[in-house]
Fold these 2 entries.
Entry 1:
Amino acid sequence: MSNSPLLPRPTIAATRPLAAQVGGHAGIETSEDDSLLIKPALPREIEFYQRIAAAGDHEELLKLRNWTPKFLGVLKLEGQLKDLNAVGDGNMEIVPVHGNIVPEDKERLVLENVAYGFVKPCILDVKLGTVLYDQDAPPEKQARMIKVAHNTTSGETGVRFTGFQVYGNDSSEPILTPKSYGRSIKKEQLPDVIEMFFPVSSAPYPTPPNSTETSDSNVSKPQSGLPAILLHCVLTTLQADLEELKATIANIEMRMVGGSILIVYEGDWERAWKTLSMPSGTATSEEEEEDDDDEVEVEIDENGQIVLESIPDEAIEEEEEHQALLCSLSLIDFAHTRLIDGAGPDEGVLKGIQTMIDLLRQRKDKIAAMLPTCDV
């Protein structure tokens, strides 16, 4: 446990809908500064995050902590006091905290926003697995989801693209591709989607920050796509991350239905260049264990505001250091994930991860062919 002095209690006076949501269910909100996600969650997903957080040093589940958004706590939004100073019949009136209608008993996860700190986050949500129904789903739903898997890329490849957004270097708004597109494509079109999400600029190397060199090519930048050298670094990092994630999941006995890989990379040229030498955003086990020593408490105060307590100052400093990332890869959405002793790993999920590894390798090889060669 850290002995650092505690900062004053920061209060998130308001939340807002997640602007960069490309997949999943509606209702996810962010803190006012976008650093946290507040997500309605079913008991099983809450339990899964708690199991990961409580995993011991010798449990394989501990390694999964490196690939999931940092879990800060659980809160329950029931309401707020309308007027604490009003004098009446002794009965206090409760009004909703938010305008959105949320079931009173719905608990919410408080998680780090893995897209926080990116200037222009290009985001892809990839649904994993060949089985799309939970084991306790009614027969009608099982039959329906079997048909969905058969009619989409899920059944054959273990992946389905549920939506993505891509920024151009000179654009303040992303280009959005809805999940309906991912449902409509066939296996043969998956490389096309990867090319759409990882476009490459026709311009040469970007100008390094603070460089005194100028040229026409550095002034006129294409509307989308990183330069080849930056994109190659992104793809190399993500491919390595996927291979490590696959090795981790191969040793965990679980069944994950509806889980996703969330890929984020920096679409801003200058920011990407500055972060080129930084890690992909996946902390090592040792770093992650040190993170977990800094506990953060989450509660709702009497005014219905979300309050974070016990934030050590080095946690704030570490967050600032990790805000500038080239790319990141996370495993998300565990509402229908079960840990089952003796069941072995989820082969459908492993198949999906291997599909992504192959797709990124193909794209990386194409980009590598575009890189200038050096004469020796």
Entry 2:
Amino acid sequence: MTSPGDWVMLTLQRMLTSTKNKDNNKMPIPSPLLTTTLLLIVILGLGGCASKRDVDDFKVRVEDTFHTSIKGNGIKLFTYRVKYADLPTLEQPHMQRVRQIEKMKRSGSKKRSVYEPDLTRWTQQIELGLEKTIAMTGYCREGYLELSRIIEEGRGEIRGECNDGATDADISKFANK
């Protein structure tokens, strides 16, 4: 005769080694390591989606302008310009060049290259500013087509055309401002 403790142990052992699917076939239970790994992937994936950039993520204060132009045939155009409000403390260009030459010597490169600043974060800041401005003004309700883009250190400009045509309300609110 089995004791209650033995019965519990046998039941747990059966549960941990297999389970049955809808066809009553035995299936292995995923290991705790696999379960933990999958859970971690899901959590990190959701965290990545939730980490959308916000204006406060950027340290450089900017001044931006948003000019609109509505043509006679209802085409809505815009120009978004951004520049540094205060010039940030930047490394002197000659020091940047010295560091670049030292880096090339260490890597064994004999090629001469021109210094190009990394504009990735500045570009992200400009794009975010444009998206927020369009959302706040309601100018391009159905998105826009980018016509041109100029991004340099300290300034940027994006010109675009809205996918939607101008309504009477748009004309009265945004007429060439």
